[in-house]
Each structure stands twice: as structure tokens, then as C-alpha cells.
């Protein structure tokens, strides 16, 4: 028979509060583009600040164009990115070319800015194998569709880097939904145990398709999940490029100093649908909620910040927009001009040495394709 303990041994409220109070959101630039946390300000030159804005504006255009190309049937799978530019691009901006990115399906912008040609990103969207044929020296893998799987791969890549004595880190992204997956916990735990140089980023855009983050976990923050893995975690304003940059930069330094991985939660929002495959966000979000988040827009606040410093103006922005449109036109043409993939291509890229049963099938398809 269950008996009552005389005195509770767990002060549940206090225990949780103690954890939660350590995960206050880091913000440097507020919604008005004013610096509110001077001491956390990253050391970036004027040119670097302009380059970061360039990348965010460019990527917003890429998102808009990708959505219309998808509607025209000229792209395949596409997961919109508008709203998440600070989380995506300021984190990649804190990396070096040697660092390795393991993206999820919404993280195509980061791998483009890490060196993947735009035409290949379009081919990946179309399901063409050339999209995953990553050029030598570009340290990324093709985006992961299985939610959270990249967290385990990242622990492995980071451990490999450590064993080889490389001065580089492995960086991965998942979403708020991804943080409920077993793979998420296994990845951060393993990397923590081996002090592997990894950075685990969770872009908390408040929804996993239509499931709100409040239904995802009883934890108040995703950042606090780091505690159980024995690694540091931080929650940052994911609409603030400077806060995201500062957090990733610090995590990278720790990793390179042999201090192991960090978990970074960025608070953000996706303005568009989950993907272009029929999701209708008006069924699970209110327009008030959308408006509230659009006021936090990363481009708006960073533009104000740069304009105040006389580092940005309309002409500059228009140049970036034109450049993005031109690049997209060229890249989509390159994707169109790429030879269509054949069944035999899929077989031959899969194996260094093809198994005998596939060899038979390969010959059959080769014969068919020659007609
Ligand atoms: C293992 C697994 N389960 C389910 C899915 C289907 N699925 C695709 S996206 C998604 C939601 C993910 O949400 P979140 O992690 O918050 O990322 P976001 O799309 O918001 O960037 C789900 C459940 C999947 N791809 N993989
Ligand atoms: Mg999400």
C-alpha cells in the first residue's frame, strides 16, 4: 500500500525554478535596433556587419523566389526560411570554412553561405542526386529530412575532428520539434561525454508543423535540456543577429579549447508555411501572433542599427536584391541544363563496388535507357 512520506524530499518548484532562472534570453539588439547589452557585443568590423546584412537580405529574396519557383513547378521540396535569417545566417557567419555543418531541411541557406553552389541547392530540392554531390572542400552534408538524426551524426563528426586533432567544430541545427526526438538527447549526451567540439543549435520557431512548442515539452526552455547532458546551454533572441553571432562564437571558442559542446536555443518564427506541400498556418496560428513576431523581424532591426551607423542605405539594399535575383536566374538555368538523372545513375553513385544483384538490374536499366 502506498504510504505518504512525512516530509517531501524533493522541492519540485524550487528545483525547476533554479534551473529555469539560468536560461534567460540573451539579447544584444532590441526590436528598435538599439544595443541593449554592450558588454556582450561581438567584435565585428563595419565590413563584417554589412556582409551579415547582405546575407540576410539576399536570403530573404532567395526565400521569396524559391516559393514562386516552387509554385511554378520549377522546384521540388521547399521549407520556407523568412523570419529565421538571424538564427540561420548569423550562426553560420560565426564559423570558419573548416567547420562542418550538418543541416536539417530548412537549413539550406547556411550551407549555401558555407559554399554549396545555389544551382546544387536547387537540384537537391528537385531530388536530383547532383544536389547531394557536395564539392570537395565544402564542409557540409545534404540536409537531413529525418528529424533529429543529424544530432547523432554531429556527435560523430565532432569526435572524428577531435581524434584527428583538427582545429574545427561540427555544427548542427534542428527545430523545437526535433528537441523531443531520442536522437537529440543521444547526440548531446554523447558529445558531452567525449567533450567533442560540437555546437548544437535548436531553432525554436514555436511550431513543429502545427504542434505548438508548449505541447512539445514540460520544460520552460529547450536550452535547459543541456543540463542533463552535463553541457552548457544558452537561450538567445533568434531574431537578433548579434546575439546569435555572439553565442555561436563563444561556443566555438569553447569547443576549440577542448571544453566540449554547447546547446544553443534560438527563439524565432517562420513567417511562411511549414513547407510548400500544402501546409496552411492559418489553421493553427492567429494573425495577431504573426504580427507580434513580424515586429521582431531580424532584417528590420539590423537595418535600423546599420542605418544609424551610416553603414546601410536603400541603394545598398537594392544592389543586394538585384544581385540575388540575377544569381537565382543563373542558378536555376544551370539546374535546368543539368542532364536528367537516370535509374542507372542512382545505382552507380551509391556503391564503390556494386553488389551482384544490382549489377544485373543495372544492366537491365542500361539497356532500357539506351533505347
Ligand atoms: C523522425 C521523423 N518523424 C517525423 C517526421 C515528419 N516531420 C517533418 S517536419 C516535422 C516537424 C519538425 O518541426 P521542428 O523540429 O520544430 O522543425 P521546423 O520544421 O519547425 O523547422 C515532422 C514531425 C520526420 N521527418 N522525421
Ligand atoms: Mg519548429
UniProtKB/TrEMBL annotation:
Instruction: Note the Gene3D superfamilies from the entry.
Output: 3.40.50.970
What Enzyme Commission number(s) does the record list for this chain?
1.2.4.1
A GO molecular function assigned to this protein is:
pyruvate dehydrogenase (acetyl-transferring) activity
The reactions it catalyses are: N(6)-[(R)-lipoyl]-L-lysyl-[protein] + pyruvate + H(+) = N(6)-[(R)-S(8)-acetyldihydrolipoyl]-L-lysyl-[protein] + CO2
Q: What class of enzyme is it?
A: oxidoreductase
Entries under CDD domains matching the protein: TPP_E1_PDC_ADC_BCADC (cd02000)
Q: Which Pfam families match?
A: E1_dh (PF00676)
Kindly list any coiled-coil regions of this protein.
2-32
InterPro entries, A to Z = Alpha-ketoacid_DH_E1_comp (IPR050771), DH_E1 (IPR001017), PdhA/BkdA (IPR017596), THDP-binding (IPR029061)
**Task of the protein:** The pyruvate dehydrogenase complex catalyzes the overall conversion of pyruvate to acetyl-CoA and CO(2). It contains multiple copies of three enzymatic components: pyruvate dehydrogenase (E1), dihydrolipoamide acetyltransferase (E2) and lipoamide dehydrogenase (E3).
Q: How does it assemble?
A: Heterodimer of an alpha and a beta chain.
Q: What is this protein called?
A: Pyruvate dehydrogenase E1 component subunit alpha
